[in-house]
Amino acid sequence: MRVLVLHSHPVEESYGKALYRQTVESLEKAGHTVDGCDLYEEQFDPVLSRRDRLIYHDYPENLKLVEPHVERLKAAEGLVICTPIWNFGFPAILKGYFDRVWLPGVSFELVNGKVESRLRHIRKLAAVLTYGATPFRAFAAGNPPKKIVKRVLRAQINPVRPVTFVAHYDMNNCTSETRAKFLARVGNAMERF
Question: How far apart are CA 137 and CA 141, in angstroms?
């Protein structure tokens, strides 16, 4: 299976980058073909410009500035999001990726006023997330990233399939042991993806 791995952590030698490498290595070990999309390394522009918004619904004109990313998304059979959670949301670069790449004609189409998915070719979805907050604080805040992955993205991709969701909470108080344990958990989850 061809798996697109979206990564959004700006620090090269970080735990987030280690999780990304573990994700890619474990997917490859399981026999998947991995398209690693490190948004910072690729210098992805997350800004939805005025022009982008004006042509947002004009397919295929809306693809021109992000066509390589659209082609990668269209080629994917699996999608893994590997990112830190900042202030109970995705980093701006990842949010911008969704705003600029998941366009009408690419991820959805309006048919008689109703949204129809165009991502049914993606058979599996996973998220590898790190939170500074504890599980309780994330829950109390509504845990928007978890809901986006397990409800919104799942509905767009395949509403009846389970989602692999692994999260390391309380990174503010983590230890080398908790990080190592989570790294192993990510490896196991991706090998079963």
Answer: 6
Please, which residues bridge with residue 167 across strands?
Answer: 129
What three-state secondary structure class fits 136? helix
Per-residue pLDDT of 139-192, as tens digits, reads 999 999 999 999 999 999 999 999 999 999 999 999 999 999 999 999 999 999
Q: What is the pTM of this model?
A: 0.95
Q: Where are the beta strands (DSSP E) in the chain?
A: 2-7, 33-38, 78-85, 108-111, 114-117, 124-131, 164-168
CB atoms within 10 A of CB 10: 14
CB 105 within 8 A of CB 59: yes
What's the length of the chain? Answer: 193
Q: Which residues of 131-152 are buried (b: 16+ CB within 10 A; e: fewer)?
A: bbbeeeebeeeebebbebbbee
> C-alpha distances in angstroms, 47 versus 70, 78, 95, 127?
16, 25, 9, 23
Exposure of 172 by Cβ count < 10 A (0-12 exposed, 13-18 middle, 19+ buried)? Answer: exposed
